[in-house]
Structures are given as structure tokens and as C-alpha cells.
Amino acid sequence: MQRNKIIVVIFEDLNIREVAVHYAEVLAQRINAQIIFLLLMEYNSDSKDEVELLKQKYKDIILKRISEIIGNNISVQAEVMVGNRRSEFYKFLASHRSFHTAVWGGDENAAMEKTGRSAGHWMARIKDELSCPLVIPKKKYKLR
Amino acid sequence: MEKKIKLLVVDDEAIVGKRLKPSLEKHGYEVETLGNGRSAIERIGKKDFDIIITDVRMDDVDGMQILEHVMAKSPRTKVIIITGYATVELAREALVKGAFDFIAKPFKPSDLRVIIEKAAKELKP
Fold it and tell me: Quick one: average pLDDT of B13-34?
């Protein structure tokens, strides 16, 4: 069955937050969507080959980890983008059609705060520009 | 001796060019800086640059017009768009029009340097 809706789950590192993955899984089942797990990582290298190898390695790690968390009846993809996170996220959004939902898989507080410790976080500054809702799952969500 | 890569930085915030020029020259680039789009278009008409880094929002001629001009005149030139007013639409427009990369301000100098080095590598035959 074709899945036209896409959910994107955004990570900043390989610390895969299960609550975000489960949220996306349940939502994907409910609306018949596919999920893209996006890792935005800062890594400085001018070697295209090195970056491509790293991206592939991290994609494999993400997909393996995801397969341990969710069932295999959901279509999933992993994408890794390397560089300034905010800029890379803009480029990611620019090169895809719209998303049904974005799910934040990074630090819970970072994407929320516009003032205080996390005020300078790139996601806190960019989230209002998203054309889809950004969900920041907390441990106590009740979707099931 | 290896030929120096010719780089043009266009930004109406003088501080950007002022900061970037010495740091890029230290890395072996030949750098010119200009503070407005109109001068940039004139300069590009007289000299072939390998890499152009341009801000988007400028009076008279903006960064997107510079990008279009460069793509029409010298498609081998790599154009890197920098902006303090990043949006998804702007990123899309820049990439569709042929920008080599797009970077939202504020960024770390090393973020830009890595992009410049990637662009420089792609220039080599």
C-alpha cells in the first residue's frame, strides 16, 4: 500500500530517544505514513568520501537501532546530514515535499525554550517556520 | 606553484567581510570583499571568481540576483548563499537556482570554511 504521508523524526546525535520513535511509530500506524529518521550532525570534513562513508555508517546504525525498537510493518528510511544543523535542516526541508508531522528526537527542553538556557538552540528558533506541527514527545504521552 | 583560488565575499555588513578575509587568506585563498550587490555584479563582469559567498538581503541587487547572474555568466563558479533571514523557501530557491550551498547565520567560521573547501575541491579538474 502506498504511503503518501511522511513523518520526520529529528535527532542530533545517536542517542535515539525511544519515546520519539514510539510516538512516530504509533502515529505512522494510525495515519498510514512512512517515517524518515533524520540525523543532523556537526562534523567538519572537506572530504566528500569521508563524509559519505560516515553518513552510510550512521544510517546503518540508526536503522539497526530503530529495528530493535519498532515493528517491521512500517516503512522507514534514515537520512544523515552533516554540517551546521540549522542550515542542513533548511536544506532537508527544501529538498522534500511537505511533512505530516515532525517529531523532535533530541533533548526535550532544547526545542521548547525561546528564553533561558536553550534559547539559542537552532530548533527553538526554526520550529515556528515549519509547515507541519512539531511534536516533542514526553515520556507520559498516551497515544496507544 | 598551485594557483590560488579566487574568492569574492559580498555582504553589506562590513564586519562579515572584515572577519572572513584574513581568516580565509590564512588558508591560502585570494579574497576580495564588497559591501553591495551592484559593485559585485560589476566586479564579476571584470574578473572570474572561483567561489562567491554572498548575503541574500542587500539593498539594490540582492544575493539571489547575484546567484542568477553568476549562473548565467560562469556556471563553473560556486556560489555559497549566507543569510540571517533563512527560510525553507529561500533555501529551496537558492538550491534550485544552482547555489553550491546555503548557510544560515549565525554560523561558525569553521562551518563556512568546510563548505568553501568542498567547493574548492569540486573546482579541481
Answer: 92
Test A129 with B87 for CB contact under 8 angstroms: yes
Interface size, chain A vs chain B, as Cβ–Cβ contacts under 8 Å: 53
Ranges of each domain in chain A: 5-135
CATH of the domain at B26: 3.40.50.2300
pLDDT at A143 over 80: no
Helix H or strand E encompassing B121 = helix B109-123
Q: How many domains does chain B have?
A: 1
- Whether residues A46 and B114 touch (CB distance < 8 A) is answered with yes
Residue numbers in B near A94 (CB within 8 A): 88-89, 91-92, 95, 102
What CATH code is assigned to A5-135?
3.40.50.620
pLDDT tops 80 at residue B4:
yes
Mean pLDDT in residue range B81-96: 94
Q: Kindly indicate whether the ipTM for this predicted assembly is greater than 0.90, answering yes or no.
A: no
